[in-house]
Batch of 2 targets.
Target 1
Amino acid sequence: MILPIIAYGDPVLRKKGKEITSAYPNLDALLDNMFETMNTAYGVGLAAPQVGLSIRLFIIDTKPFSEDETLDKDERAFLESFKEIFINPEIIEETGEEWAFNEGCLSIPDIREDVLRKPLIKIKYQDRDFKTHIKDFKGLAARVIQHEYDHIEGVLFTDKLSSLKKRLLKGKLANISKGKISVDYKMKFPNLKKKR
Ligand code: CO
């Protein structure tokens, strides 16, 4: 089932997600729905707050990046099959020199901006069976994880822009929250004005 993606301006995107346990109800169905929702919108990651749930969970499938011919062969091969569920994640460290990448977000359609992030991360998380892993990621895989991780901390990529950029985007962001945007996937807008 495709879920509506919560648009910029909804308070759920600003909450810090709560940890979950294996007793969380209907987790399999939620994960199936999240993958279907993300794939239909051609996203590479989706966090639970983006479907209205303030919990520490996100999913990633970087396959769409594997067609990017500007990436080197090894990274493309990795991104082709990088599909993972992150439950109760905790970024342990981020290292290296910050690099810029043009990010977008399914909750903020039509806005893409360069964001600086560190290239190497170490993350601890649980998989679907609540087994704990500690793994290192780099490059674009790390980038997508950092973006999704921010979502469960209540942070959006637009928060990381310069104050000038933020001022320039203010009107556009307000329009997104009101649903004044054309988007080809299902969304829920917090400030949508009902037509009388
Ligand atoms: Co996002």
Target 2
Amino acid sequence: MINRTHDPALTSWVESANKPGCDFPVQNLPFGIFGRPDQPGVRSVGVAIGDCILDLGACVREGLLAPGPAADACNEASLNLLMAREPSALSQLRAEISDILSEAGSQSARARDASRRILVSMATAELDVPARIGDYTDFYASVHHATNVGSLFRPDNPLLPNYKWVPIGYHGRASSIVLSGTVIHRPAGQTKGAEAAAPVFGPSRMLDYESELGFFVGRGNSFGSTIPIESAWDHIFGFCLVNDWSARDIQSWEYQPLGPFLAKNFATTISPWIVTAEATEPYRVAVAPRDDSDPQPLPYLVSSGERDKGAISVFLEVSLRTGMMRAAGLEPHLLSRAPFSSMYWTVGQMLAHHASNGCNLRPGDLLASGTVSGADSESRGCLLEITSRGANPVTLATGETRKFLEDGDEVIMKGYLEAGGRPRIGFGECSGRILAQAV
Ligand code: MN
């Protein structure tokens, strides 16, 4: 439900939050885990506001947040307990935080002073992966991505027959999910050239990124039970950006018959701030109608709510900065901007499908959408698509060209929720730089 926390007219007494283009205005209020410079080793739940973080643990201790199931979960070093709370408790917490941070909030002068004291500058804080991620699943929900990639390998028959019936996914690895800013070592693995008689083991020469939207499971489902599509959104805590780093040469040799393995599990980067499901409410839109020739989804993947509000108006941007560009002080090169609203499967459908066999999802599990690519050539979410597997390299301002990522390259992902008459709210950054192979 849209409520007063979404009011476009709200401003914050944290002035940096009111600047145009700021990712974290008072309508956003994303959660994360951070450490303060004066308390090394201590981790707290925080909310991003402008260029600052409101320390929610300190808010509870100062009496600025009313005791309750959600506030009690803020004295933790991860978001898992908060993620497990009822949506109504999370909504109440959001309303209280909005009241604390809004210029027009009902805070007393004493409370406002206390809030000011416990703000932490984001630039000095240390951010952490926000949840203990038990399991990670990656989907393949962009029909444009699936078609573009499929046509590289099967020009006459790009989409496999199951694609429009079943949300395709694979189980990824949680242990190698890292926070934005973590350097990524080029993976080594088995690769085999098309003409080669045998594979070799060595550094990947076709290292790629995938620009994706991730979503964290909130309340889970018990082993053997399902999550009906009608209540899927009650089990989504919130969203982040995901870079599913992919070694295409390792992938093409290993992926049959069981799918991605070492080509992807060496690293996955996520952005630090979780934009809550409630914050996305004003940006949720109707799902784009399927072509007349497409099958309708099976009934367990259909609900009126999902049809009318299952898509989200998010745009994902990817930029590249090479070592040479960094040395020359050049701005990153924009590679793509893609609308998440063009996805074939919604996050609700992905979640309901995942639990439809009785698989138990748990608070803090991470699900990701798969590469987000739109219909046009400026909206392709990985280099495999942009360069047609290296056939059409990208030319950069330095005169350098790229088929795939080179050592020293930095991939910078950003994402924005946009709707007419609403402030744009963002995710912060999901970035990572490639270093030479680990030795
Ligand atoms: Mn992926």
